[in-house]
Amino acid sequence: MSTAHFPDNVMSVMKDAIINVFWKKTDVRALFDRCGVPRDLVSGQDWTAYKIHIVSPVLDNLNSTPKGLGPLRQILQETLKYTDGKHLLWLPDGEKRRKEAERGLEHLRLLVKELDAAKRTEDEERQARLRQLEQAKGGIAFRNKLDQIKTRFYALFQNPDAQARGYGLEDILYDTFDLFELSPRGPFRRIGEQIDGAFAHAGDHFLLEAKWQKEPVNLADLRDLDGAVSSSLDNTLGLFVSLNGFSGEALTGYSTGNRPRIICMDGMHLVSVVEGRIDLSDLIARIRDVAVQKKRIFVPVDEILAGKV
């Protein structure tokens, strides 16, 4: 079942406007020809009849057929090109006919304006529904990818090969940073240095160091990453990820003296991210804030999630 292109009220006013604006039947026929109305539809009308009996069936046909929308829109545009009815003043009762034409044009413009507003609202609602659908699909896809990373991460704990765990952690970190759109880069070597990775956050570049060892990371390890950061450009910082944390001496010793250039995360931070409890970018931003405000380069994730910092 076909659907009308325009509602009945618009069609009724459009017919009246055409009849009043295009006074001669020859003008009506020229309008149809100019707007691409099918010739057989035009020639199939009784052009000796009243204009209403010609205009009405032609417009009704166009309004009910898929190919009729183009000509119908063109007819509407051609009709609304008339800003007044002064071209009718030469006719008998010309002033009366001018006023009738102008009233019809004004009414038609008002309805078209309302129709356009309704159409825009309908299109906006449709676009909003599509955006919500895409966001939902994107959310599901994101959640699925995060679940896959979590599964791989937890599987690493069962691997007895320490070296394999280390390489696996690098892959996990890369994929996690990639999922959160932090532009990660894999391991690379600079002169005298092996860098586990890099990423971007809030306009700054970060060098990444990751360790999975039994003992907490010591002060020398933090200073090694600090040295790599200090030899880079000014907007470079460092993130040290140690699955088994950091010694108290390392955190205290590093934070004493020079301005800190690195922040730290442990295994629980990563667990909170892969389990979806906190966005990775938000987590890094919060750790950075605390480092700036309180000069603490490491904050347990439980404190962050509980709002204690």
Summarize the structure.
This protein is of the alpha/beta class and 309 residues long. It has 12 helices and 6 strands. Strands 3-4-5-6 form a 4-stranded mixed beta sheet, with helices on both faces. Strands 1-2 form a two-stranded antiparallel ribbon.
Topology:
Blueprint: H1 8-21, H2 25-34, H3 39-43, H4 52-64, H5 69-80, H6 94-156, H7 162-179, E1 188-190, E2 193-195, E3 197-201, E4 204-211, H8 219-230, E5 236-242, H9 248-255, E6 262-266, H10 267-274, H11 280-294, H12 301-305
Helix pairs in contact: 1-4, 1-6, 6-7, 8-9
Structural account:
This protein is of the alpha/beta class and 309 residues long. Helix content is 59%, strand content 10%. It contains twelve helices and six strands. The strands form two sheets. It has a four-stranded mixed β-sheet, sandwiched between helices. Strand 1 and strand 2 form a beta hairpin. The chain is rod-shaped, with a radius of gyration of 36 Å.
